[in-house]
Specification:
Elements: E1 10-14, H1 19-31, E2 33-39, H2 45-56, E3 60-64, E4 67-73, E5 85-86, H3 91-102, E6 108-111, H4 114-118, H5 122-130, E7 134-136, E8 142-145, E9 149-150, E10 153-155, H6 161-171, E11 174-175, E12 178-181, H7 189-196, E13 200-204, E14 207-211, E15 221-222, H8 227-239, E16 244-251, H9 258-265, E17 269-278, E18 281-289, E19 297-298, H10 310-318, E20 323-326, H11 339-349, E21 353-357, E22 360-364, E23 373-374, H12 380-392, E24 398-399, H13 412-419
Bound molecules: shikimate-3-phosphate (S3P).
Length: about 425
């Protein structure tokens, strides 16, 4: 697909609902008592995979675009799926289901697409087995034998909200309390939603402590726009001349706003307005305008707060003066594709000065870039980052497969071209 070019980016927009919150609203809604009404749901392929899996376990879910109603059947209301649950491209669906299904009274099997079958599952199966779970294998397809679980105290070796959530979901079915200690704080949407639904959960610094309760209670969930989707337009607004974009109603949960901190530290003009809070989740309107960026260092506790935004932040760094160093980001290697290798390989095609390191990359900005025929590796965030980069590269650019934006942002290209 040829990437069309816009001259500048001006105007107001919204982005689709937060992917992490959308998944959790369906999953927790399914095991709560009562009806969970979700507005602002992300009808992207990953979240539709989650809906599909729960329908297969007997949950009645009415889905009409952004409005979804989940008719919860309580903690013990899921029924045995008749066939293998298919999670598509969704790591979140796969890993969270491992935790949730471990403590059921039935057996199940999970698999996904080729990318999912390559992604490491040991990070969830290992601690879950310490809780008494029986899961075969370290890669999909995984067979889960429903078992009696007990709580554990677990020090997480990697900062991962998927692992943390998987253990918390198992903890709902375990005997005794579950304590999870994070190395660095990862996104906390599960903790906030569980609390709102009446779970016995305490968070103190990097410790999360959960005790089982007889029931969760359905809640209305208002999903804000996904900051990981807004990120593409935040970067575009900052790097394009004569641009100013306002993105309305974007989630600004502190565990997700690393991109705002980094762009600000690079000198981007960013303004947050109309902050509101719903069930612990904050949202705001974000305005970004053309800026002179300078390189920066991105490492440590900041990484989990912007892990999904690193490909587009790397694109921003190409247009910043000086060097940008990204460290401590080994996790990028086990995302939908190896995002360190993919970013470095593709960015080099257009003349970028970028090199791969063991745990990140080094980017020297300010080079003149030319268009190229890019590969997306079937990775939605690669496709959108390359589309942003292509706007500022001289000449034509194309993507080998742009359909993968369906995963998290089906209307991405319409929204991009409308700004021009
Ligand atoms: C997610 C957690 C992150 C993130 C992913 C969504 C979640 O993964 O990259 O896109 O919803 O919990 P990790 O937990 O593997 O860091």
């Amino acid at each position: 697909m040829e990437i069309k070019k816009i001259k500048n980016a001006r105007g107001e927009m919204t982005v689709p609902g937060d992917k992490s919150i959308s998944h959790r609203a369906v999953m927790l809604g399914a095991i709560a008592r009562g009806e969970t009404r979700i507005s602002g749901f992300l009808p992207g392929a990953d979240c539709l995979s989650t809906i599909d899996c729960f329908r297969q376990m007997g949950i009645d879910i009415e889905a009409d675009g952004e409005n979804v109603t989940v008719k919860g059947r309580g903690l013990h209301g899921l029924s045995a799926p008749r066939k293998t649950l298919y999670t598509g491209n969704s790591g979140t669906t796969t890993r969270l289901l491992c935790g949730l299904l471990s403590g059921q009274s039935f057996n199940s099997e999970i698999t996904g697409d080729a990318s999912i079958c390559r992604r490491p599952m040991r990070r969830v199966t290992e601690p879950l087995s310490q809780m008494g779970a029986k899961i075969s294998g370290e890669y999909c397809p995984l067979k889960i034998t429903g078992s009696r679980l007990h709580g554990i105290e677990y020090d997480m070796p990697v900062a991962s909200a998927q692992v943390k959530t998987s253990l918390l979901l198992a903890g709902l079915y375990a005997e005794g309390g579950t304590i999870i200690r994070e190395k660095e704080k990862s996104r906390d949407h599960t903790e906030l939603m569980l609390k709102a639904m009446g779970a016995d959960i305490d968070v103190s610094g990097l410790d999360v402590c959960l005790k089982p309760v007889p029931a969760l209670t359905a809640q209305e969930v208002i999903v804000p726009g996904d900051i990981s989707s807004a990120a593409f337009f935040m970067v575009l607004g900052a790097i394009m001349p004569d641009s100013c974009i306002t993105i309305r109603n974007v989630g600004i949960n502190e565990t997700r706003t690393g991109i705002i901190d980094v762009l600000k530290s690079m000198g981007a003009k960013i303004k947050l307005e109309n902050v509101r809070v719903s069930a612990g989740e904050s949202a705001a309107d974000i305005t970004v305008s053309s800026s002179h960026l300078t390189g920066t260092q991105i490492c440590g506790a900041l990484i989990p707060r912007l892990i999904d935004e690193l490909p587009v932040i790397a694109a921003a760094a190409l247009f910043a003066g000086g060097e940008t160093v990204i460290k401590d980001a080994q996790e990028l290697k086990v995302k939908e594709t190896d995002r360190i290798h993919a970013v470095v390989t593709e960015f080099k095609k257009c003349g970028a000065d970028i090199s791969e390191t063991d745990d990140g990359m080094i980017i020297r900005g300010g080079r003149t870039l030319h268009g190229a025929d890019f590969k997306t590796y079937g990775d939605h965030r690669m496709a959108m980052s390359l589309a942003v980069l292509a706007q500022l590269a001289g000449g034509a650019s194309s993507l080998d497969d742009a359909r993968c934006v369906e995963i998290s942002y089906p209307d991405f290209f319409d929204d991009l071209y409308r700004l021009g």
